Amino acid sequence: MKMSLSDKKPTEDESLKQSKKKQKKQDAWKPQGPMDPFTMLECLPESKQQEIQKALHLFSFGPSLPKTLQQATKHTYRFWDTQPVPRLGDSVVTHGPIVEGEASVRQEPYSLPEGFSWDTLDLSSPTVLKELCTLLNENYMEEDDNTIRFEFSLEYLKWTLQPPNWLAQWHCGVRVDSNNKLVGFISALPADVRIYETEKRMVQVRFLCVHKKLRLKRMTPVLIRELTRRVKQQGLHQAVYTAGLVLPTPLSSCRYWHRPLNIRKLTEMSYPGLRQNMNLQRALKFNRLPEETKTPGLRAMTKEDAAGIHSLLQANLQKFHLSPMLSLQEVEHWLLPREKVIDTYVVEGEDGTLTDMVSFYSVSSRVLNHPVHSGLRAAHLLYVASTVTDPVDLMEDALVLAQSKGYDVFCALDVMDNKSFLEKLKFIVNDKSLHYYMYNWMCPNMSPDKVGLVLPN
Ligand SMILES: CC(C)(COP(=O)(O)OP(=O)(O)OC[C@H]1O[C@@H](n2cnc3c(N)ncnc32)[C@H](O)[C@@H]1OP(=O)(O)O)[C@@H](O)C(=O)NCCC(=O)NCCS
């Protein structure tokens, strides 16, 4: 029998090297140091942990992922440089896939270091959904200094992760074998997307999350590779995703805008981005909203409105270079009001036709270690489409409704035509950007007002 290269018996030296390499791989995600520093940290009261985290954030000069394009040019993307994404700095004029779909897709899952296993999460099980909720709520931080943390509800996760045609195998988790703890997650949702003139079935990637104790150990590339493999198995080869950091290569870079609603609370919390030059009384006066909405015919969406909204959105989304092509069922799923998850309002004309719509979803957060406030509720603008009502009036009504429902702040991206009302309605621009990316697709970059897609995280 012939012996292949890999069958050759290794020399003693090679064996030693191999076993060291194997050990290194097995140890890859183990906490470093003689005593687990995380255990030590967790013994401290939360307020102490908080102080340490704030101090680390303040004095952190270590290597961190680039938040600006300028920083990105100096960063080496060990993983992303191996992926079919445009290179930073390339000016792209063509449209199309970067690599053509392979004839065969890898059958076996990507290997994890010893002690960890893949788990396809069955989100229809309340226990599993709760586990995912805990992972995200404890590890999906909102502010780098860990002062505000997302608090996703079970209902919210069902809404974002189970749209029509969702697939269980795209809810991809990583567990620790010894205690079955969920420590990593990434997901994909099927979506028809129009990018410039091309209409494509692809996935939207959501909720990439790695447990705090396993950060900076290169778990992310493995999660992304495995999800990509599972998506390719279903014959899809493109993805759209967003991130706050700069990766190769943003298709568009957008900014967050915030409109304070509960001024007193936000001032007490020193909410980032509030106008600094105003005392509370002035801020209350400056941000005061009407008591009631003013658009005649404005009302909450019902199931019967789905078809009307579908046509309104289809016409409106045509204007943009990147937009979802929503089916009727998807319109129902994404927009039909659900308590503390999604609100949609329509304007019905006298003849019964729907002329305008606006929707916003709910993002709750936990405020850590504040003497008075423990939670924050933000409304995030999803879609607004108007054919009759002035968008400024429609959005002002949305602010009034959000305030009456107890939201503290209203957030919007400067995508679509949102710039037409942001400043007029006293939204304040935030220093945070949100970058849009596409996997395995090459096309020219676009300005935020050409983006017609919002991906709730
Ligand atoms: C985002 C997160 C998973 C990254 O984990 P990490 O431990 O810092 O990174 P890892 O060591 O596992 O992997 C590093 C690689 O992942 C890439 N990466 C990090 N965050 C990424 C993101 N949000 N999207 C895509 N790639 C990302 C890095 O660029 C790096 O690749 P590179 O060498 O090509 O630069 C982790 O910080 C986390 O769970 N954060 C909280 C939730 C969150 O912010 N999710 C992202 C929403 S967009």
From TrEMBL:
* Database matches in InterPro entries: Acyl_CoA_acyltransferase, NMT, NMT_C, NMT_N
**Catalyzed reaction equations:** N-terminal glycyl-[protein] + tetradecanoyl-CoA = N-tetradecanoylglycyl-[protein] + CoA + H(+)
What topology in the membrane does the UniProt record assign? Answer: Peripheral membrane protein
Keywords in alphabetical order, please: Acyltransferase, Cytoplasm, Membrane, Phosphoprotein, Transferase
Q: What spans are recorded as compositionally biased (Basic and acidic residues)?
A: 1-17
Region (Disordered): which ranges? 1-36
Q: Which residues cross the membrane?
A: none
**Gene3D superfamilies, from UniProt?**
3.40.630.170
Q: What is this enzyme's EC? A: 2.3.1.97
Which GO molecular function annotation, any one, does this entry have?
glycylpeptide N-tetradecanoyltransferase activity
The superkingdom of the source organism is: Eukaryota
Query: Where does this protein reside within or beyond the cell?
Result: Cytoplasm, Cytosol; Membrane
Question: Domain Glycylpeptide N-tetradecanoyltransferase C-terminal: where?
Answer: 269-450
What broad class of enzyme is this?
transferase
- GO CC annotations, alphabetized: cytosol; membrane
Record-annotated Glycylpeptide N-tetradecanoyltransferase N-terminal domain positions: 103-254
Protein purpose: Adds a myristoyl group to the N-terminal glycine residue of certain cellular proteins.
Report the sequence similarity comment from the record. Answer: Belongs to the NMT family.
Name of the protein described by the UniProt record: Glycylpeptide N-tetradecanoyltransferase
The scientific name of the source species is Cottoperca gobio (Frogmouth)
Q: What is the lineage of its organism?
A: Eukaryota, Metazoa, Chordata, Craniata, Vertebrata
